[in-house]
Design goal:
Length: about 375
């Protein structure tokens, strides 16, 4: 195994400790040791001060030790954000079933039952380190993709509306107001407003994603959840939020009569409908109508937003719900951050509902959200 890892071994039996250390060092690992949990914590703090490269990639620890046992050590390690992802293997004597159960509850990664032979030790160590490195690589690749998407959005989506605002504001400041006709002044002001509205939507979407990422969405949902008795009014409010003065697409709203009451967070539900309406308008030709239909079916409330846009290829439909994803962005250069449908799915998951996309290329798409009654 290339790039052998650094390992912390914790064991109060000095002879066994030296034996484990020797086996691992012969196989090329960088090993440092402690004789109890308290010493191990001191070594971890010391390594943290030296930098990330000094931290172990794996901790191998006995359970039964003086001063601080392995269970308390594991508990302390899992409380520290900088150590929380370090894999942890327990060394346990036969019959310590209760301690094994406690370790599993705290998230121990593996067990070695004493006595064990050197090959068992090496297999357990290498498998855990390989798994840990694979997860780190996957996480790094994912974070790299997120960073690239954010940079692209910042470069394009934020810069474009800012250009609107700054350019029209500059034109206003370069002219005496008395020299501008009403029509020209109105054009400048509309340009500033268009850029400002687009910026506001982008910022609101990022804030919503952060709320879900940080767990704030669940708390907000619990506080705001209430009985929805006038869904048509909520959809009309969503239209007002999604439509600008320049939106040419008629919005046709159809809500079934005697719709049963259902519980939802009106703020998040309206936000989901805004995202779907905004998405439908963006992909519909000017003057083409967008439809919003709501009814009850098979124990759920379903809200459908229907457009007559270019449609979505079948192979892309699963990915459209991912954050920052857009279909053939390079080809079509669509506006938006690609976060709208991701927000819709997060909101529906919060409500115990679902999302459905039906689409025919060249004819349009129907996005359906469902909420339990």
């Amino acid at each position: 195994m290339a790039n052998k890892a650094r390992i912390l071994v914790v064991e109060d039996d000095v002879n066994l400790l030296e034996g484990i250390k020797s086996v691992l060092e012969i196989d090329g690992f960088d090993v440092f040791t402690a004789e109890n949990g308290r010493q191990a914590l001191a070594e971890l703090h010391k390594a943290s001060r030296e930098g990330p490269g000094a931290l172990p990639e794996l901790i191998v620890s006995d359970i039964m030790m003086p001063q601080m046992d392995g269970i308390d050590l594991l508990r302390a390690v899992r409380k520290e954000e900088r150590w929380i992802n370090i894999p942890f293997i327990f060394l346990t004597a036969r019959g310590e079933k209760i301690d094994m159960q406690r370790g599993k509850q705290l998230g121990v990664d593996d067990y070695l039952v004493k006595p064990f032979d050197p090959q068992e030790l090496l297999i357990a160590v290498e498998s855990r380190i390989n798994r840990h490195r694979a997860l780190d690589q996957a996480h790094s690749a994912q974070m790299g993709d997120i960073k690239r998407n954010i940079l692209m959005i910042l470069n394009h989506e934020f810069r474009t509306p800012l250009t609107f605002v700054v350019a029209y504001a500059d034109m206003l400041s370069d002219h005496e107001h008395s020299q501008l006709g009403d029509a020209e002044l109105l054009t400048f002001l509309k340009g500033v407003n268009t850029g400002a509205v687009r910026l506001r939507r982008l910022i609101e979407n990022f804030i919503t994603l952060v709320e879900f990422e940080m767990g704030e969405a669940e708390r907000s949902y619990a506080m705001r959840r209430t009985s929805i008795t006038d869904l048509k009014r909520l959809i009309e409010m969503a239209k007002a939020a999604a439509y600008s003065e320049d939106t040419a697409n008629p919005l046709l709203i159809t809500v079934a009569q005697d719709l049963p009451k259902f519980n939802a967070d009106p703020v998040y539900l309206q936000s989901a409908i805004v995202q779907l309406i905004d998405n439908a308008v963006k992909f519909s030709a000017p003057d083409q109508p967008v439809q919003v239909k709501a009814d009850a079916y098979d124990g759920v409330i379903q809200i459908r937003v229907i457009d007559s846009g270019r449609g979505i290829p079948e192979g892309e439909r699963a990915a459209i719900w991912d954050s920052f994803y857009q279909v053939n962005r390079e080809e079509f250069e669509d506006q938006g951050s690609g976060s709208g449908l991701a927000i819709v799915k997060l909101i529906m998951n919060l409500h115990g509902g679902g999302v459905i996309c039906e689409s025919v290329q060249g004819e349009g798409s129907t996005f359906t959200i469902t909420l339990p009654i």
